[in-house]
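[Help] Beginner question about ligand-bound structures

Sorry if this is basic. My supervisor gave me a protein sequence and a SMILES string for adenosine-5'-triphosphate and asked me to "get the holo structure". I don't really know what that means in practice or what format the answer should be in. Inputs are pasted below exactly as I got them.
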Amino acid sequence: MKEQESDAATVDTAKPSVIEVNDFSFAYGEKQALFNIDMSMNEKEVTAFIGPSGCGKSTLLRCLNRMNDLVPIAKITSGNIEIGGVDINHQDVDVIELRKRVGMVFQKSNPFPKSIYENIAYGLRIQGINKRSRLDEVVERCLRGAALWSEVKDRLNDSALGMSGGQQQRLCIARALAVEPDILLMDEPCSALDPIATAKVEELISELKEQYTIVIVTHNMQQATRVSDKTAFFYLGKLIEYDMTEKIFMNPKEEQTEAYVSGRFG
Ligand SMILES: Nc1ncnc2c1ncn2[C@@H]1O[C@H](COP(=O)(O)OP(=O)(O)OP(=O)(O)O)[C@@H](O)[C@H]1O
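Answer (accepted):
No worries, everyone starts somewhere. Holo just means with the ligand present. The predicted complex, written as structure tokens, is below.
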């Protein structure tokens, strides 16, 4: 027990871990963005990434579904990331399949310039699923899952661009659910939302964790305490401390964590 307490990146857990980050280092060209990150994230829990701007939160998040493959100078410099025991960067891994399993919601909602219905149906249509009854069923399930159904059920054919910002963000969450992911990555999903829309998305996150493993990057300390089970604090590309959220905010082990969560830097 003592030994475990001395390891900042080890968290006791009853649930099986689904994401394992092992000695993972990552660079953009000559710029080292992440240094030897070791952590595991658990099934059906919410893990928050916090830390000052530029500390590598989004980089690690994007590595979890290989979004950084799109950056030509980006490279892994040590270690690996396993999801469900599979090294996600192995040459045999189909990145499209990976991204179906590991969905992503971005900072700024980005609905397609299509109807509300088609925003959700799109992910199925590109898989060749066009049967109306099947699409209807998925659209309803996802909109209900994203707590949006009652607000939009009478205007499914209206443009998604006519929705409020908060509704658009929940639509993007619904769209991510359509391909039945196991994991949802959220990169500051509420930063463009007002407090009421933020509360709705946070409530939704708490509901979604019944079914999904969620990793969220947030600059909002209160949000991390409200929605996450565990919190990882990063600084200058290093994982400084990773523990139960309550512990990170109420009784952190590291001085840097204490300084950050109490607003003394960052
Ligand atoms: N596409 C890129 N090309 C080059 N460097 C990058 C790229 N993306 C991020 N970086 C650099 O990697 C480091 C980590 O950036 P990252 O965006 O992961 O930090 P962050 O903690 O998410 O910051 P923020 O809170 O401001 O979003 C920074 O120094 C950043 O400048």
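A couple of things worth pointing out: The chain has one domain: 17-262. The radius of gyration is 19 Å. Feel free to follow up in the thread.
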